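[User]
Protein folding is very new to me. Any chance you could explain this protein sequence and its structure tokens? I have pasted everything here:
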Amino acid sequence: MCHPRPDFSARKENKKTKPENDQNNTDEVDEDFSEVSEAESDSSDSQSHPGPALDTETLPPLKWYRFTLFSTQSSNTIPMSYETHREQCNDQKKRLGLQHHKVTHGGRSYTATTAIQQGASIDSVRALGNWSIASSWSLYNHSLPVDAIVAAAGFNGKQVNSYFVAREAIVPPASLLLSIFPWIEAEEKAYKHRLIALAKPTNKNAGQDEALCYLLNLLRRLRTVLLQDAAVLYSEHPEAPIFKFSPFNSNDFQQFAASAAQIIRDANEHQRQYLQNLPTNIADNL
């Protein structure tokens, strides 16, 4: 940027009016010359750095800079203690009916597991959470190695979409589902009554039994799996001993198993066309 040429007219005028034999006037002129030089220096600085001058005396004090996000009730500048933070998180979990072993770090565990499940690499997720120590990383990563599980099941581990179980397309009727482990609903109702009876003012989940909840959820899922597997087995080996017992010896099950064969054939054909039309497979065929 080109700087404007400074005006030295004031300096020249002072020199012309200076008497040669007046020592006192010499001091005054030198003093004036010094003032002009300082003014020119200020002018040059203002032109090198355009914009209004910053008056620090008029700026408000940065009182907000010391405020903490989680503070105490007595002061915004004192950070909340870990015990209070943990208590607040647990209260919110109870109010929302959430069950999670992590308290203040629940979000970190959720982020790591969800990011990997959605396709992010382990290295990128570790960088996201700044997990540089392997031992701490294992505490937050709860995702399963899907590619290894798919490969162990006999499918292509590098192509997770290749995993497919045809019998999953079979939907058992509700009457057959309720006939297997028929006491699940009764146990769930009894568990809810125990929670209410054992609840305390300071801990509403005093009677909580996570192991029982997990077991009942597993058995509920196994209802469907057992009926699906039994339907496939019945079409191939109807003389198997299991079909001598209820509910597998009922008319409802036999009708369900008879319809399963066609459902499986249709599901296999649909999956074959799906895999054939994948972009990667189309490129390989070309």
User: Anything to note?
Assistant: Confidence is low (pLDDT under 50) at residues 5-49. Residues 105-143 form one domain. The radius of gyration is 40 Å. DSSP finds twelve helices and no strands in the chain.
